[in-house]
Amino acid sequence: MKDKQLVQELLDFIDASPSPWHAVATMEQALLDAAFERLSETAQWQLESGGRYYVVRDDSSIIAFVAGQKPLAENGYKIIGAHTDSPGLRIKPHALFKAGELLCMGVEVYGGPILATFTDRDLSFAGRVSYRCLTGKIKTKLVSFEQPLLRLPNLAIHMNRKVNEEGLKLDKQNELPLLFALSSKEQLADKVFTELLTSQCELDAEQILSWEFNVYDVQKGSFWGANQEFYTDSQLDNLASCHAGLNALLDDAVLNSGNTVVCAFFDHEEVGSESSKGADGSFLPDVLERIALARTLNTEDYKRALANSFMLSVDMAHAYQPNFPTAYEVEHKVYVNKGPVIKLNANQRYSSESLSEAMFITWCQQADVPYQKYAHRTDIPCGSTIGPMASAKLGIRTVDVGNAMWAMHSIRESAGVLDHRYMLDTMRYFFKS
Ligand code: CO
Predict the structure, then answer these.
(1) Residue ranges with CB less than 5 Å from ion ligand 1
(2) Helices 2-15, 236-249: inter-axial angle, 10-degree rounding
(3) How far is the CA of 364 from the centre of ligand 1 (A)?
Protein backbone atom coordinates (compact mmCIF):
# COMPACT_ATOMS: atom_id res chain seq x y z
CA MET A 1 0.00 0.00 0.00
CA LYS A 2 1.45 3.31 -1.17
CA ASP A 3 0.33 5.38 1.84
CA LYS A 4 1.88 2.94 4.28
CA GLN A 5 5.13 2.91 2.32
CA LEU A 6 5.31 6.69 2.57
CA VAL A 7 4.75 6.55 6.34
CA GLN A 8 7.40 3.84 6.65
CA GLU A 9 9.79 6.29 4.98
CA LEU A 10 8.75 8.89 7.55
CA LEU A 11 9.41 6.46 10.41
CA ASP A 12 12.84 5.61 8.96
CA PHE A 13 13.57 9.34 8.70
CA ILE A 14 12.60 9.93 12.33
CA ASP A 15 14.50 6.88 13.58
CA ALA A 16 17.61 8.14 11.78
CA SER A 17 17.14 11.57 13.42
CA PRO A 18 17.37 11.27 17.21
CA SER A 19 18.16 14.98 17.66
CA PRO A 20 17.48 18.20 15.68
CA TRP A 21 21.13 18.14 14.53
CA HIS A 22 20.64 14.63 13.17
CA ALA A 23 17.32 15.63 11.55
CA VAL A 24 19.10 18.32 9.55
CA ALA A 25 21.89 15.91 8.58
CA THR A 26 19.30 13.36 7.39
CA MET A 27 17.56 16.02 5.30
CA GLU A 28 20.89 17.27 3.98
CA GLN A 29 21.66 13.79 2.65
CA ALA A 30 18.29 13.63 0.85
CA LEU A 31 18.99 17.04 -0.70
CA LEU A 32 22.49 16.03 -1.82
CA ASP A 33 21.02 12.88 -3.38
CA ALA A 34 18.68 15.14 -5.36
CA ALA A 35 21.61 17.27 -6.65
CA PHE A 36 21.12 20.21 -4.27
CA GLU A 37 24.22 22.28 -3.55
CA ARG A 38 25.17 23.55 -0.10
CA LEU A 39 25.67 27.30 0.23
CA SER A 40 27.72 28.85 3.00
CA GLU A 41 26.47 32.03 4.64
CA THR A 42 30.05 33.31 4.74
CA ALA A 43 30.59 32.95 0.97
CA GLN A 44 29.28 34.98 -1.95
CA TRP A 45 26.32 33.38 -3.64
CA GLN A 46 26.03 32.85 -7.35
CA LEU A 47 22.68 31.30 -8.09
CA GLU A 48 21.80 29.72 -11.41
CA SER A 49 18.31 30.00 -12.74
CA GLY A 50 16.63 26.71 -11.85
CA GLY A 51 19.49 25.83 -9.47
CA ARG A 52 18.89 23.79 -6.31
CA TYR A 53 20.47 24.98 -3.06
CA TYR A 54 20.34 24.70 0.69
CA VAL A 55 21.76 26.59 3.66
CA VAL A 56 22.31 25.23 7.17
CA ARG A 57 22.61 27.53 10.18
CA ASP A 58 24.36 26.11 13.23
CA ASP A 59 23.65 22.48 12.30
CA SER A 60 19.98 22.35 13.31
CA SER A 61 18.07 24.78 11.07
CA ILE A 62 17.97 24.33 7.31
CA ILE A 63 16.53 26.24 4.36
CA ALA A 64 16.42 24.49 0.98
CA PHE A 65 15.22 26.19 -2.18
CA VAL A 66 15.01 26.09 -5.93
CA ALA A 67 15.87 29.39 -7.64
CA GLY A 68 12.97 29.13 -10.08
CA GLN A 69 13.08 30.61 -13.60
CA LYS A 70 9.83 32.58 -13.21
CA PRO A 71 10.34 36.29 -12.33
CA LEU A 72 10.71 36.44 -8.55
CA ALA A 73 9.25 39.91 -7.99
CA GLU A 74 5.96 38.92 -9.62
CA ASN A 75 5.85 35.27 -8.63
CA GLY A 76 7.15 35.51 -5.05
CA TYR A 77 8.50 32.76 -2.81
CA LYS A 78 6.43 29.68 -2.01
CA ILE A 79 7.53 28.64 1.45
CA ILE A 80 6.82 25.64 3.64
CA GLY A 81 7.88 26.23 7.26
CA ALA A 82 8.19 23.66 10.05
CA HIS A 83 10.44 22.93 13.02
CA THR A 84 13.20 20.40 13.61
CA ASP A 85 13.15 20.30 17.42
CA SER A 86 10.89 18.35 19.78
CA PRO A 87 10.33 18.83 23.49
CA GLY A 88 12.17 16.49 25.82
CA LEU A 89 15.22 16.20 28.04
CA ARG A 90 18.71 17.58 27.44
CA ILE A 91 21.85 16.40 29.24
CA LYS A 92 23.36 18.86 31.73
CA PRO A 93 26.97 20.11 31.24
CA HIS A 94 28.36 18.12 34.19
CA ALA A 95 26.45 15.09 33.02
CA LEU A 96 26.99 12.37 35.61
CA PHE A 97 26.75 12.42 39.38
CA LYS A 98 26.75 9.81 42.11
CA ALA A 99 23.59 8.94 44.00
CA GLY A 100 24.30 6.24 46.56
CA GLU A 101 25.95 3.44 44.63
CA LEU A 102 24.49 4.55 41.32
CA LEU A 103 25.62 6.95 38.62
CA CYS A 104 22.85 9.20 37.37
CA MET A 105 22.64 11.62 34.47
CA GLY A 106 21.39 15.13 35.16
CA VAL A 107 18.89 16.50 32.68
CA GLU A 108 17.26 19.80 31.86
CA VAL A 109 13.72 20.02 30.49
CA TYR A 110 13.63 21.34 26.91
CA GLY A 111 10.27 22.89 25.99
CA GLY A 112 7.09 21.30 27.27
CA PRO A 113 7.26 17.48 27.14
CA ILE A 114 4.77 15.22 28.95
CA LEU A 115 7.38 14.17 31.49
CA ALA A 116 5.51 11.10 32.75
CA THR A 117 5.88 9.51 29.28
CA PHE A 118 9.66 9.42 29.72
CA THR A 119 9.42 6.85 32.50
CA ASP A 120 10.18 3.17 31.85
CA ARG A 121 11.36 3.74 28.27
CA ASP A 122 14.54 2.59 26.53
CA LEU A 123 16.36 5.91 26.53
CA SER A 124 19.64 6.89 24.96
CA PHE A 125 21.17 10.18 23.91
CA ALA A 126 22.37 11.82 20.73
CA GLY A 127 23.64 15.20 19.63
CA ARG A 128 26.76 17.01 18.56
CA VAL A 129 30.27 17.30 19.93
CA SER A 130 32.63 20.20 19.21
CA TYR A 131 36.28 19.23 19.20
CA ARG A 132 39.67 20.53 18.19
CA CYS A 133 41.16 18.57 15.32
CA LEU A 134 44.88 18.04 14.79
CA THR A 135 45.24 21.21 12.70
CA GLY A 136 43.86 23.27 15.61
CA LYS A 137 40.53 23.96 13.88
CA ILE A 138 37.26 23.47 15.80
CA LYS A 139 34.96 20.95 14.19
CA THR A 140 31.64 19.37 15.03
CA LYS A 141 30.64 15.74 14.93
CA LEU A 142 27.23 14.10 15.29
CA VAL A 143 27.05 11.35 17.87
CA SER A 144 24.32 8.86 18.68
CA PHE A 145 24.70 6.08 21.23
CA GLU A 146 21.88 3.98 19.81
CA GLN A 147 21.69 1.27 22.46
CA PRO A 148 19.55 1.99 25.55
CA LEU A 149 21.89 3.55 28.11
CA LEU A 150 19.49 5.43 30.32
CA ARG A 151 16.21 4.87 32.13
CA LEU A 152 13.78 6.68 34.39
CA PRO A 153 12.19 3.85 36.40
CA ASN A 154 8.84 4.64 37.95
CA LEU A 155 8.40 4.52 41.66
CA ALA A 156 6.57 1.28 42.55
CA ILE A 157 2.89 1.79 43.26
CA HIS A 158 3.54 0.49 46.79
CA MET A 159 5.42 3.72 47.47
CA ASN A 160 3.20 5.96 45.39
CA ARG A 161 -0.28 4.70 46.29
CA LYS A 162 -2.20 7.61 44.81
CA VAL A 163 -0.48 7.58 41.41
CA ASN A 164 -3.63 6.43 39.59
CA GLU A 165 -5.86 8.94 41.31
CA GLU A 166 -3.54 11.93 41.23
CA GLY A 167 -1.43 11.21 38.15
CA LEU A 168 2.33 10.83 37.92
CA LYS A 169 3.97 14.04 39.07
CA LEU A 170 7.73 14.37 38.71
CA ASP A 171 9.75 17.02 40.47
CA LYS A 172 11.92 18.47 37.70
CA GLN A 173 15.02 18.99 39.79
CA ASN A 174 15.04 15.85 41.92
CA GLU A 175 13.04 13.18 40.15
CA LEU A 176 14.13 13.43 36.52
CA PRO A 177 17.82 12.37 36.61
CA LEU A 178 18.23 9.23 34.52
CA LEU A 179 19.80 6.06 35.91
CA PHE A 180 22.96 5.15 34.05
CA ALA A 181 25.26 2.72 35.91
CA LEU A 182 26.32 1.13 39.15
CA SER A 183 29.22 3.04 40.55
CA SER A 184 32.23 2.09 42.56
CA LYS A 185 33.73 4.36 45.24
CA GLU A 186 36.84 5.18 43.24
CA GLN A 187 35.04 6.16 40.05
CA LEU A 188 35.01 9.83 39.09
CA ALA A 189 31.71 10.69 37.45
CA ASP A 190 33.16 13.21 34.97
CA LYS A 191 35.83 10.73 33.90
CA VAL A 192 33.25 8.04 33.19
CA PHE A 193 31.35 10.42 30.93
CA THR A 194 34.49 11.57 29.12
CA GLU A 195 35.48 7.96 28.46
CA LEU A 196 32.03 7.25 27.10
CA LEU A 197 32.34 10.19 24.71
CA THR A 198 35.89 9.54 23.59
CA SER A 199 35.21 5.93 22.69
CA GLN A 200 32.01 6.75 20.81
CA CYS A 201 33.46 9.79 19.00
CA GLU A 202 36.88 8.24 18.38
CA LEU A 203 38.53 11.35 19.79
CA ASP A 204 41.05 11.97 22.58
CA ALA A 205 39.72 13.45 25.80
CA GLU A 206 41.79 16.66 25.31
CA GLN A 207 40.21 17.22 21.91
CA ILE A 208 36.62 17.37 23.17
CA LEU A 209 35.63 20.93 24.05
CA SER A 210 31.84 20.99 24.34
CA TRP A 211 28.64 19.22 23.39
CA GLU A 212 24.84 19.29 23.30
CA PHE A 213 22.83 16.10 23.79
CA ASN A 214 19.19 15.22 23.42
CA VAL A 215 17.64 12.26 25.25
CA TYR A 216 15.68 9.99 22.92
CA ASP A 217 13.77 6.72 22.90
CA VAL A 218 15.54 3.97 20.92
CA GLN A 219 12.26 2.19 20.11
CA LYS A 220 11.55 2.41 16.38
CA GLY A 221 8.32 3.72 14.95
CA SER A 222 5.50 1.25 14.23
CA PHE A 223 1.98 0.86 12.87
CA TRP A 224 -1.03 0.02 15.00
CA GLY A 225 -4.82 -0.29 14.82
CA ALA A 226 -7.21 -2.92 13.40
CA ASN A 227 -6.08 -2.15 9.85
CA GLN A 228 -2.71 -0.70 10.82
CA GLU A 229 -4.20 2.65 9.90
CA PHE A 230 -2.35 4.51 12.68
CA TYR A 231 1.34 4.92 13.36
CA THR A 232 3.45 5.91 16.33
CA ASP A 233 6.96 7.24 16.93
CA SER A 234 8.71 9.99 18.85
CA GLN A 235 9.08 13.52 17.40
CA LEU A 236 6.08 13.37 15.04
CA ASP A 237 5.72 16.98 16.18
CA ASN A 238 7.25 18.19 14.01
CA LEU A 239 9.48 15.90 11.97
CA ALA A 240 6.36 14.57 10.21
CA SER A 241 5.82 18.04 8.73
CA CYS A 242 9.53 18.38 7.80
CA HIS A 243 9.38 15.02 6.02
CA ALA A 244 6.23 15.94 4.07
CA GLY A 245 7.64 19.37 3.13
CA LEU A 246 10.96 17.98 1.98
CA ASN A 247 9.24 15.30 -0.12
CA ALA A 248 7.04 17.96 -1.73
CA LEU A 249 10.16 19.99 -2.59
CA LEU A 250 11.86 16.95 -4.14
CA ASP A 251 8.88 16.14 -6.35
CA ASP A 252 9.92 16.33 -10.04
CA ALA A 253 6.97 18.48 -11.06
CA VAL A 254 7.76 20.92 -8.23
CA LEU A 255 11.49 21.04 -9.04
CA ASN A 256 10.60 21.84 -12.66
CA SER A 257 7.73 24.21 -11.95
CA GLY A 258 9.82 27.36 -12.42
CA ASN A 259 8.68 28.61 -9.00
CA THR A 260 11.07 29.73 -6.28
CA VAL A 261 10.05 27.09 -3.75
CA VAL A 262 11.52 27.12 -0.24
CA CYS A 263 11.53 24.70 2.69
CA ALA A 264 12.48 26.42 5.95
CA PHE A 265 12.87 24.14 8.95
CA PHE A 266 13.85 25.79 12.23
CA ASP A 267 15.23 24.69 15.55
CA HIS A 268 14.06 26.21 18.86
CA GLU A 269 10.31 26.36 18.10
CA GLU A 270 9.57 24.49 21.30
CA VAL A 271 11.36 27.12 23.37
CA GLY A 272 9.94 30.22 21.69
CA SER A 273 12.00 30.51 18.46
CA GLU A 274 14.06 33.44 19.72
CA SER A 275 17.57 32.55 18.56
CA SER A 276 19.79 33.20 15.56
CA LYS A 277 18.50 30.04 13.92
CA GLY A 278 14.94 30.13 15.26
CA ALA A 279 11.88 31.25 13.29
CA ASP A 280 11.96 34.56 15.18
CA GLY A 281 15.61 35.09 14.18
CA SER A 282 17.16 36.44 11.01
CA PHE A 283 17.71 33.14 9.19
CA LEU A 284 14.70 33.18 6.86
CA PRO A 285 14.79 36.95 6.14
CA ASP A 286 18.54 36.71 5.48
CA VAL A 287 18.21 33.79 3.06
CA LEU A 288 15.22 35.24 1.18
CA GLU A 289 16.99 38.57 0.78
CA ARG A 290 20.18 36.94 -0.43
CA ILE A 291 18.26 34.91 -2.99
CA ALA A 292 16.78 38.19 -4.26
CA LEU A 293 20.19 39.93 -4.32
CA ALA A 294 21.86 37.02 -6.09
CA ARG A 295 19.10 37.20 -8.67
CA THR A 296 19.84 40.96 -9.04
CA LEU A 297 16.54 42.24 -7.67
CA ASN A 298 16.57 45.75 -6.25
CA THR A 299 15.05 46.51 -2.84
CA GLU A 300 11.66 47.39 -4.25
CA ASP A 301 11.51 44.20 -6.28
CA TYR A 302 12.51 42.18 -3.20
CA LYS A 303 9.63 43.76 -1.27
CA ARG A 304 7.33 43.02 -4.20
CA ALA A 305 8.50 39.41 -4.12
CA LEU A 306 7.63 39.19 -0.41
CA ALA A 307 4.22 40.73 -1.06
CA ASN A 308 3.61 38.11 -3.75
CA SER A 309 4.73 35.25 -1.50
CA PHE A 310 2.87 32.65 0.51
CA MET A 311 3.87 30.48 3.42
CA LEU A 312 2.42 27.21 4.66
CA SER A 313 3.30 27.00 8.34
CA VAL A 314 3.00 23.30 9.02
CA ASP A 315 2.84 21.86 12.51
CA MET A 316 0.78 19.08 14.06
CA ALA A 317 -2.81 19.47 15.33
CA HIS A 318 -4.77 17.87 18.17
CA ALA A 319 -6.87 14.88 17.07
CA TYR A 320 -10.01 14.06 19.02
CA GLN A 321 -9.42 11.47 21.76
CA PRO A 322 -12.87 10.20 22.81
CA ASN A 323 -11.78 9.38 26.37
CA PHE A 324 -11.32 13.10 27.02
CA PRO A 325 -14.34 14.68 25.32
CA THR A 326 -14.39 17.82 27.45
CA ALA A 327 -10.86 18.79 26.44
CA TYR A 328 -12.05 19.68 22.94
CA GLU A 329 -14.15 22.46 21.46
CA VAL A 330 -17.35 20.54 20.69
CA GLU A 331 -17.94 21.92 17.20
CA HIS A 332 -14.30 21.75 16.10
CA LYS A 333 -13.22 18.19 16.68
CA VAL A 334 -10.67 16.98 14.13
CA TYR A 335 -9.84 13.34 13.43
CA VAL A 336 -6.84 11.42 12.17
CA ASN A 337 -7.05 10.14 8.57
CA LYS A 338 -9.53 12.89 7.64
CA GLY A 339 -7.07 15.24 5.99
CA PRO A 340 -5.01 18.33 6.83
CA VAL A 341 -6.26 20.57 9.61
CA ILE A 342 -6.52 24.33 9.12
CA LYS A 343 -5.78 25.98 12.46
CA LEU A 344 -7.74 29.10 13.28
CA ASN A 345 -7.41 31.49 16.21
CA ALA A 346 -8.89 34.98 16.39
CA ASN A 347 -6.08 36.09 18.72
CA GLN A 348 -3.44 35.29 16.07
CA ARG A 349 -1.82 32.43 17.89
CA TYR A 350 -2.14 30.94 14.42
CA SER A 351 -1.42 33.09 11.39
CA SER A 352 -4.34 31.83 9.26
CA GLU A 353 -6.86 34.37 7.98
CA SER A 354 -9.81 33.81 5.72
CA LEU A 355 -7.98 34.48 2.45
CA SER A 356 -4.95 32.29 3.21
CA GLU A 357 -7.41 29.68 4.46
CA ALA A 358 -9.38 29.88 1.20
CA MET A 359 -6.18 29.42 -0.82
CA PHE A 360 -5.24 26.35 1.19
CA ILE A 361 -8.73 24.89 0.71
CA THR A 362 -8.29 25.38 -3.03
CA TRP A 363 -5.03 23.39 -3.04
CA CYS A 364 -6.71 20.61 -1.04
CA GLN A 365 -9.55 20.50 -3.55
CA GLN A 366 -7.14 20.42 -6.49
CA ALA A 367 -5.28 17.55 -4.82
CA ASP A 368 -8.59 15.78 -4.08
CA VAL A 369 -7.75 15.81 -0.37
CA PRO A 370 -10.28 16.32 2.47
CA TYR A 371 -9.59 19.06 5.02
CA GLN A 372 -10.78 19.99 8.51
CA LYS A 373 -10.94 23.17 10.58
CA TYR A 374 -9.71 23.40 14.15
CA ALA A 375 -10.31 25.91 16.90
CA HIS A 376 -9.15 25.45 20.49
CA ARG A 377 -11.57 25.63 23.44
CA THR A 378 -12.25 29.27 24.30
CA ASP A 379 -11.38 28.73 27.96
CA ILE A 380 -7.99 27.01 27.42
CA PRO A 381 -4.93 28.93 26.14
CA CYS A 382 -4.05 27.97 22.60
CA GLY A 383 -0.54 26.87 21.54
CA SER A 384 1.28 28.67 18.75
CA THR A 385 3.60 27.90 15.83
CA ILE A 386 6.35 29.51 13.77
CA GLY A 387 3.61 30.97 11.51
CA PRO A 388 2.75 34.23 13.31
CA MET A 389 6.41 35.15 13.90
CA ALA A 390 7.73 34.41 10.44
CA SER A 391 4.84 36.12 8.70
CA ALA A 392 5.03 39.17 10.98
CA LYS A 393 8.75 39.56 10.21
CA LEU A 394 8.36 39.28 6.46
CA GLY A 395 4.81 40.41 5.76
CA ILE A 396 4.12 37.15 3.93
CA ARG A 397 0.57 35.83 3.75
CA THR A 398 0.52 32.61 5.78
CA VAL A 399 -1.80 29.79 6.76
CA ASP A 400 -1.25 27.50 9.74
CA VAL A 401 -2.05 23.88 8.96
CA GLY A 402 -1.00 20.43 10.15
CA ASN A 403 -2.00 16.84 10.48
CA ALA A 404 -4.07 15.63 13.40
CA MET A 405 -2.22 13.58 16.01
CA TRP A 406 -2.68 12.16 19.49
CA ALA A 407 -0.51 12.73 22.55
CA MET A 408 1.38 15.80 21.33
CA HIS A 409 4.66 16.18 23.30
CA SER A 410 4.56 12.59 24.58
CA ILE A 411 7.75 10.64 23.84
CA ARG A 412 5.47 8.32 21.84
CA GLU A 413 3.02 10.25 19.66
CA SER A 414 0.48 8.81 17.21
CA ALA A 415 -1.10 9.88 13.93
CA GLY A 416 -3.00 8.54 10.90
CA VAL A 417 -1.43 6.83 7.89
CA LEU A 418 -3.62 8.51 5.23
CA ASP A 419 -2.93 12.02 6.47
CA HIS A 420 0.76 11.98 5.61
CA ARG A 421 0.07 11.51 1.91
CA TYR A 422 -2.84 13.96 2.04
CA MET A 423 -0.50 16.62 3.37
CA LEU A 424 2.22 15.81 0.85
CA ASP A 425 -0.24 15.96 -2.08
CA THR A 426 -1.60 19.32 -0.91
CA MET A 427 1.92 20.73 -0.48
CA ARG A 428 2.77 19.71 -4.04
CA TYR A 429 -0.20 21.66 -5.39
CA PHE A 430 0.82 24.67 -3.34
CA PHE A 431 4.42 24.53 -4.58
CA LYS A 432 3.29 24.15 -8.20
CA SER A 433 0.60 26.88 -7.99
CO1 CO B 1 5.18 21.60 16.98
Answers:
(1) 237-238, 315
(2) 120
(3) 22
